[in-house]
Design a protein that fits this description.
Helix content is 29%, strand content 23%. It has 20 helices and 29 strands.
Length: 794
């Protein structure tokens, strides 16, 4: 076992613990960024001047009427920016634009003594606009060939030979929607300036170091004059990886110009209309199967809806291409990617970061093709799994390690869920119920863990031991409710060999741990856990030397377990507090800076080849649904999941992440339906789903009636901290099983072998139209009925 993954005696990791802030969450005492306003004196409030047109050139901006509003202190415009008027890493996101690029684009910001004064001031600002043609939908952009950013191409094997060897070649198109993050806490920041003109920013951000960097550019000052702190976030899901930077920069600019604290917080409607979402995609595909239903070739083009600026669209698209194979061996592939430029909000990171979009394409293909090949969808999927010991690589050239886990979780979820018996029960139910149908589908996942950009795969930490034996840890990861801080406390206590109550965690700050990566890509525990372990190991080695001088024997024979140091084979012991005090008087350093970098990564973006991921996380889900044939309404009767988190750092946290990720994925695939006004009227480009009243989020009524989650056992990951694996993003893709079950239930209203196309999101309306197509024969039926009997003997 590797040094990184090996666990000591009586570790604090692996113990099921509640979230470290759970008590504060449920009692309402947990503070979030905007709560700090009440503790800050003389705060000014920001309000945006939004232009409600999809696109247009600003011909006049008159701020004088706003200054006449009582309580308005200042109006911020591009003329006030001392540095670079840009909030993006691609230099394509002006903070104060000359051209409106989407409906609701903010062109100026008003500072007021109260939020109401700022709001009235913003309403008084006069903006004249020369309207320009706009592209609102993905189809608009594709028709106009409006693209921006990189155009990656992934090629593997020989697709011409693959199609020539295929017994069956099928083609299709698929367009699926984006998703709103709908975090409970909207974007927020609080900026203060001190007597030395240094800026301190409290920000609800997943990437404090990049927030610091953008503010530095905007203000035209070095990064050491800016400190960014993230206390905690009320949800992030990727929506706070890039987009908080510009908002924090506006607050910082206001503070620098007025000398007073500036508070920024979007209300829910502003957050929905101004911030980016998950990228919707369009896919066009052609796939070839041999006579036994095994994939021979895939040719596909994926188009991501990037919105008006690039943001993170390029790496999102890259990850989509890298995950189009999911759990399936595709010997010959050609997959191209494009980013559409539309006049909507700039789409951004969202849990899974393009991986779900790529994986959804292949799962949709197999779900549609299985009936046409005369195969049960479970059988078709199983026949195409990566196989261990075959030397198989992904289409981008990375060997698939632990491929046996694909089949392991697949078999376990069938056993746990009694799938074989239930499928027989479902067949009997469907035969007896002409107007209600049930279906059970299983889908698996293989999700790569690491940032595609190799440089981001590093983490830092600062660990301080005080004279009384208490420990304070700082790390570069941010807490958005996912339990990262809980795991980091467990890692520190385990490495030092002390009880959990001895360890406290400080908020994430750029002046404690610099140059950190975003808490994203499911890498928070891997990177920051590795850094904390490294810092604690440095401290433990120093303390072992001190303990050996007090207890006798060699330092290598000293063990610190549950806060007591002992020498192997001896009854002598030294309590942790006494050991620390002794070390202080011996002038032993009791602080350490830790660092971790993920080894073994390589990625060539131009050739689209390499080993971008440290390892893969695996999982499988079995979902049973019941569908009403009159309305398309459905309910999720039961979900069984087996998920691979390695050897869990914190099982209660991980099970919560699996459950939450699955439900969020089910929301994306079945409920959450983003709509824009696509008419040529005055509201063209307006987001029509601006609130929870028009944007359907998962609620208790959509939860599975039975929900069983099992973490894969004996699954230690040699390459990660204490044998664990990432858990944040992978479970979201387990929700593919919901959509596939709905497809099969809709098809059950038609003749055997019916293949239905199903929109995404598969709302009750979409399911109803799929049912109607199946009933009316509009859906495709099996084109090769002989394949099923031939394959049954394969």
């Amino acid at each position: 076992m590797s040094h990184l993954s090996e666990r000591p005696e009586k570790p604090a990791v692996g113990v099921p613990l509640p979230h470290e802030s759970a008590y504060q969450h449920v009692t309402g005492t947990a503070l979030y960024t905007d709560d700090l306003v009440q503790r800050t004196k003389d705060v000014l409030h920001l309000y945006p001047v939004q232009v409600m047109k999809a696109r247009g050139r600003i011909t006049a901006l008159r701020t004088e009427p706003a200054l006449a509003v009582p309580g308005v202190v200042r109006v911020l415009t591009g003329a006030d920016v001392p540095g670079e008027n840009d909030a993006g890493m691609k230099h394509d996101e002006p903070l104060f634009p000359d051209e409106v690029m989407f409906h609701g684009h903010a062109v100026a910001w008003v500072l007021g003594e109260t939020l109401e004064a700022a709001r009235l001031g913003a309403a008084a600002v006069e903006v004249e606009l020369e309207e320009l043609p706009s592209l609102v939908t993905l189809q608009d952009a594709m028709a106009a060939e409006s693209y921006h950013g990189a155009r990656p191409l992934m090629v593997h094997g020989d697709i011409d030979a693959g199609f020539a060897d295929s017994a069956h070649v099928l083609t299709g198109e698929f367009q699926f929607a984006g998703q709103e993050h709908f975090y409970l806490e909207t974007h927020a920041a609080l900026a203060l300036v001190d007597e030395n003109e240094q800026i301190f920013i409290q920000s609800s951000t997943q990437h404090p170091s990049e927030t610091q960097e953008i503010v530095s550019h905007v203000l035209g000052v070095p990064a050491n004059e800016i400190t960014v702190q993230c206390l905690r976030m009320g949800g992030g899901f990727g929506g706070k990886e890039m987009q908080p930077h510009g908002f924090a920069a506006i607050a910082a600019l206001g503070a620098k110009l007025t000398g007073r604290p500036v508070r920024f917080r979007l209300n829910r409607t502003q957050d929905l209309t101004m911030s980016g979402k998950r990228h919707g995609f369009h896919a066009r595909w052609k796939i070839g199967f041999d006579a036994e239903g095994r994939i021979q070739a895939l040719d596909a083009t994926l188009v991501a809806d990037g919105g008006w600026s690039l943001d993170l669209s390029e790496p999102v698209l890259a990850r989509a291409l890298c995950h189009i194979d999911n759990t399936y061996w595709i010997p010959n592939a050609r997959v191209a990617g494009l980013i559409a430029k539309t006049n909507t909000v700039s789409n951004t990171a969202f849990r899974g970061f393009g991986g779900p979009q790529g994986m959804l394409v292949i799962e949709d293909i197999l779900g549609r093709c299985a009936p046409q090949l005369g195969l049960d969808p479970m059988e078709l999927r199983e026949r195409n799994f990566y196989q261990p010991g075959q030397g198989q690589t992904t289409p981008y050239g990375q060997p698939v390690t632990q491929a046996e886990r694909i089949s392991t979780v697949w078999q376990q979820v069938q056993e746990n869920g009694g799938v074989a018996d239930r499928k027989r029960e479902i067949a009997a139910f469907n035969a007896a119920h002409p107007h209600t149908k049930r279906a059970l589908a299983i889908t698996g996942i293989k999700f790569g863990i690491s940032f595609n950009l190799t440089a981001f795969n590093q983490g830092g930490a600062l660990v301080l031991i005080y004279k009384d034996g208490s420990v304070l840890i700082n790390h570069g990861g941010t807490e958005m409710g996912q339990g990262l801080h809980t795991k980091m406390i467990q890692v520190a206590a385990t490495t030092l060999g002390i009880p959990l109550h001895k360890v406290r965690l400080a908020p994430t700050r750029t002046d404690k741990v610099p140059n950190t990566s975003a808490t994203a890509a499911s890498s928070g525990a891997d990177l920051n856990g590795g850094a904390i372990k490294n810092a604690c190991e440095q401290l433990r080695e120093r303390l072992l030397q001190v303990a050996s001088s007090q207890l006798g024997g060699n330092a290598s024979d000293v063990r610190i377990v549950e806060g007591v140091a002992r020498v192997l084979g001896s009854d002598k012991e030294l309590a942790w507090d006494d050991l620390v005090r002794t070390a202080y008087f011996q002038r032993v350093q009791l602080s350490a800076s830790g660092y971790y970098r993920t080894e073994g990564l390589h990625w060539d973006a131009k050739s689209f080849r390499g080993t971008p991921f440290k390892y893969f996380a695996y999982g499988a889900a079995a979902t049973e649904v019941e569908v009403d044939g009159f309305t398309g309404a459905y309910r999720i009767r039961r979900v069984d999941i087996v998920h691979d988190v390695g050897e869990s750092l914190s099982p209660m946290i991980d099970i919560g992440q699996v459950e939450g990720g699955f439900v969020q994925g089910a929301g994306w695939l079945t409920l959450e339906d983003l709509r824009w006004d696509t008419s040529d009227g005055p509201n063209r480009g307006r987001l029509q789903t601006q609130a929870a009243s028009t944007y359907k989020l998962p609620s208790f009524s959509e939860m599975p009636e039975e929900f069983h989650v099992t973490l894969l056992e004996n699954a230690t990951e040699e390459g990660a901290v204490y044998g664990s694996k990432a858990v944040g993003e992978p479970p979201l893709m387990l929700a593919f099983s919901v959509r596939e079950a709905l497809r099969q239930a809709a098809a059950a209203f038609g003749p055997a072998g019916t293949s239905v196309d199903l929109a995404s999101p598969a709302t009750p309306e979409a399911v109803y139209w799929a049912i109607e197509a199946a009933r009316g024969g509009d859906a495709q039926s099996s084109e090769v009925p002989a394949v099923a009997s031939a394959l049954s003997h394969a």
